[in-house]
Amino acid sequence: MADKTILRALRGERLPTPPIWMMRQAGRYLPEYRATRAKAGDFLSLCYNPELAAEVTLQPIRRYGFDAAILFADILLLPQALGADLWFVTGEGPRLSTITSAEGLRGLKTRDDIHEVLSPVYETVRILSESLPEETTLIGFAGAPWTVATYMVAGRGTPDQGPAHKLKDEDRATFSALIDLLSDATIEYLSKQVEAGAEVVKLFDSWAGSLKGQDFEDFAVKPAARITKEMKARFPGLPVIAFPREAGDGYIGFHQKTGADCVAIDNSVTPEWAAEHVQVSGCVQGNLASRHMVTGGQALVEETRRVVEAFRKGPHIFNLGHGITPDADPENVALMIETVRNM
Ligand code: CP3
């Protein structure tokens, strides 16, 4: 286990070839994913069906031999386990019942009540830990509290996270209590994933970039630090990846401030900038623009090489800057992997 390439990079080792996986690697760009999803009925039924969720997790491993598999689930299963209604509108995205007041918050369940709903996810992890190739690392994950809260407050994805900012600015006590509940529940959720066999955990803070100044410290840095500290206390040596997407200058020092072993980088910064300002503090993951998986060609090859070159001096896990999109060409993924491994 200690020899898995991803775990070596997460311990701070610089490897001659960076290990590679891809956000949303199990997804709609793959015909075999679409077939299994159709068999499950819909997206949420797939998330809660351990055999089929494990199957879609394994598909990109079989097809491409990625160095890591990420549990197939969604960051919005946790709010559902806390009592929110959740459904997905095809072609649009998630919808949830909303939390906009202290009263709404009191109506949610506690961190100890989440496991009944989430137990199929833990079963998926158990199946995966028994069926993955020996060299493949299994990554568990959760949404970071701020990003999950933006969906719980608005009831859907929003371009500017306006409803969550409004609650935060008008009733900071209630908003902070929601963040605390999510932080506690996330620790319990991730702990069960690790007990079931996840070897690494990743926190997705997709909307971290809309937090500025003290808000970034209070709602992106502090929850990530608290979750990381508690997970490492419970599971000594457990590696943690943090993804404060579009944090910009907020990426600087994020390793030290949160205790995360690896910081994932999006496409709002260049790999050269990230090598100079972020990789100096520890392992980084990223950051080829996901549009290259659609457009392919020589630009894909050149940009892939550029990312590998930029991060050559330190620990690096190759990945995209955000999830692969449904219109991507599976052949381009193969070309990216071949380019990384042949350098
Ligand atoms: O990376 C992986 O493959 C692991 C599984 C995973 C999914 N979602 C599967 C999924 C992970 C780690 C996520 C994280 C997630 N989910 C985030 C954070 C990362 C990010 O992308 O910014 C967010 C914000 C969500 C919430 C969510 N789930 C949205 C907004 C949507 C709709 C948008 C879309 O792409 O359709 C989803 C659906 C979703 N989650 C899909 C997948 C494969 C597509 C659903 C389908 O098959 O129809």
UniProtKB/TrEMBL annotation:
Assembly and interaction partners: Homodimer.
Matching PANTHER family, A to Z?
METHYLTETRAHYDROFOLATE:HOMOCYSTEINE METHYLTRANSFERASE RELATED, UROPORPHYRINOGEN DECARBOXYLASE
Function text: Catalyzes the decarboxylation of four acetate groups of uroporphyrinogen-III to yield coproporphyrinogen-III.
Chain positions recorded as substrate binding sites: R24, Q25, A26, G27, R28, D74, Y151, S206, H322
Q: Does the keyword Cytoplasm apply?
A: yes
Organism from which the protein derives = Thioclava litoralis
Which GO molecular function entries does the Swiss-Prot or TrEMBL record give?
Answer: uroporphyrinogen decarboxylase activity
Q: Which UniProt keywords apply?
A: Cytoplasm, Decarboxylase, Lyase, Porphyrin biosynthesis
The protein's predominant localisation is: cytoplasm
Its Enzyme Commission number?
4.1.1.37
Mind telling me what this protein is named? Uroporphyrinogen decarboxylase
Q: What class of enzyme is it?
A: lyase
Query: Domain of life of the organism in this record?
Result: Bacteria
Q: Where does the record say this protein resides?
A: Cytoplasm
Residue span, Uroporphyrinogen decarboxylase (URO-D) domain:
19-28, 139-155
Which residues does this entry assign to the site Transition state stabilizer?
A: D74
Task: Give me the reactions it catalyses.
Answer: uroporphyrinogen III + 4 H(+) = coproporphyrinogen III + 4 CO2
Q: Which pathway does the database say it acts in?
A: Porphyrin-containing compound metabolism; protoporphyrin-IX biosynthesis; coproporphyrinogen-III from 5-aminolevulinate: step 4/4
Pfam families cross-referenced by the UniProt entry: URO-D (PF01208)
Which family does the similarity line name? Belongs to the uroporphyrinogen decarboxylase family.
